[in-house]
Every structure is written in structure tokens, then in C-alpha cells.
Amino acid sequence: MALNTNKDLKMYYSIKEVAKELAVTETTLRYWETVFPQVAPYKGANGVRRYTKEDIKILRTIYHLVKERGLTLSGAKMQLKSGGPKESAETNSEVIDRLKAIKEELLGLKSQLDML
After folding, report:
1. Are 13 and 43 in contact (CB under 8 A)?
2. What total number of domains does the chain contain?
3. Alpha-carbon distance 97 to 114, whole Å?
4. Any idea what the CATH number is for the domain that residue 48 is in?
5. pTM for the complete prediction?
6. For residue 91, pLDDT beyond 70
7. Parallel, antiparallel, or unpaired for β 42-43 and 49-50?
8. pLDDT tens across 22-81, in order?
9. Could you count the other beta carbons within 10 Å of the beta carbon of residue 100?
10. Burial label, 74 (beta-carbon count in 10 A; 0-12, 13-18, 19+)
């Protein structure tokens, strides 16, 4: 039986995978873990972090608040504590991710058309 490599069916992601996905360093993820109590990946007996889809969703929101909106870490922390703006930030983060994917797809189509 072959291993399932479909990312949508994975339960846990390594810190390396998450760092690459968010374009941040592993050190940044570890630091955010100390600042934001919402970030609490599962740690095995050997201390290896395993992130769930929910953990990644929270990290995307933090990334959006800090890197894209320019909030300080304390500002992002306050934003996450209050319920309403957090949902808005999550929605904005999801929209930005979808737009980035659409942009990549369009650029791929453009390069194919340029070759014609």
C-alpha cells in the first residue's frame, strides 16, 4: 500500500513544512509560540512539533496581522484576543491566499500564451 501524499488528508505538519508554507523561519514560528497562547502545536516525547490545520490557520492570521497589516506583536495579540476582528483578519488572510493562488495561475497561463 502506497503512502498517502495528499496534503488535504494530512493530520499533522512539521515545523519545516509550516515555515515553508508561510515563508517564515522556524525560529519565527517558535517565537510566535511564546507570544501567542493560541499557537500550541502538539509536541511528541522527543519535543518535535506537529501542527494541525487549525494551528496553521491561526499562524496564517498572525502572519497576516504582523507581516501584511504591519501590526506589532502586541497589537496582533490584542487583535486575536477580541473575537470580531480576529474573524475579519482570518477572512482577509484567506482572501489574500486565494488571490495569490489566482495570480500564480494567471501568470502561468500568461507564460503559456507568450510561448504561442
Report:
1. no
2. 1
3. 26
4. 1.10.1660.10
5. 0.65
6. no
7. antiparallel
8. 999 999 999 999 999 888 899 988 889 999 998 998 899 899 889 888 889 988 888 887
9. 10
10. exposed
